[in-house]
């Protein structure tokens, strides 16, 4: 299993931070009908890296609480536990 990549300010490629940045650009375009301005780009990247590292770090620290349940799969139910590593 490949580790999930939160991203860093020096390496956002193929990371959660990069995906947040892409979503911000698309949402801005939809909301305002123009591309996201370059002004403040570095500040946004720092914010997105911090958010991605915080979210994935929290999930990683609380893996025991992450499980999926399929109701009525068996008499006792059916559970899967989520597991991932961070890069």
What is the count of β-strands? 2
Order of the strands making up the biggest sheet: 1-2
Low-confidence segments, ≥5 residues, pLDDT <50?
none
Strand content: 5-15%
Q: How many domain units?
A: 1
Number of helices: 2
| Cα distance spanning the termini | 12 Å
- Structural class computed from helices and strand pairing: mainly alpha
Could you give the order of the helices and strands?
Answer: HHEE
Shape: elongated
Radius of gyration: 17 Å
Percent helix, as a range, is 40-55%
**Major beta-sheet overview:** 2 strands, antiparallel
In round numbers, the mean pLDDT is 87
Question: What does the model show?
Answer:
The chain has one domain (16-81). It has 2 helices and 2 strands, in the order ααββ. It has helices at 16-32, 41-61, and strands at residues 67-70, 78-81. Strands 1-2 form a two-stranded antiparallel sheet. α1 packs across α2. The longest helix is centred in the middle third of the chain and has 21 residues, at 41-61. It is elongated and about 55 Å long. The mean pLDDT is 87.
Please sum up the structure shown:
By secondary structure, the chain is mostly helical.
Primary descriptors:
87 residues, two-stranded antiparallel ribbon, mainly alpha, 2 helices
SSE blueprint:
Blueprint: H1 16-32, H2 41-61, E1 67-70, E2 78-81
Antiparallel strand pairs: 1-2
Helix pairs in contact: 1-2
């Amino acid at each position: 299993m490949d580790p999930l990549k939160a991203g860093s300010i020096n390496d956002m490629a193929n990371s959660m931070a990069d995906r947040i940045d892409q979503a911000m650009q698309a949402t801005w375009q939809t909301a305002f009908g123009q591309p996201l301005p370059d002004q403040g780009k570095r500040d946004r990247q720092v914010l997105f890296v911090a958010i991605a590292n915080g979210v994935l770090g929290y999930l990683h620290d609380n893996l025991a609480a992450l499980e999926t349940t399929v109701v009525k799969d068996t008499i006792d139910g059916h559970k899967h536990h989520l597991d991932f590593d961070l890069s």
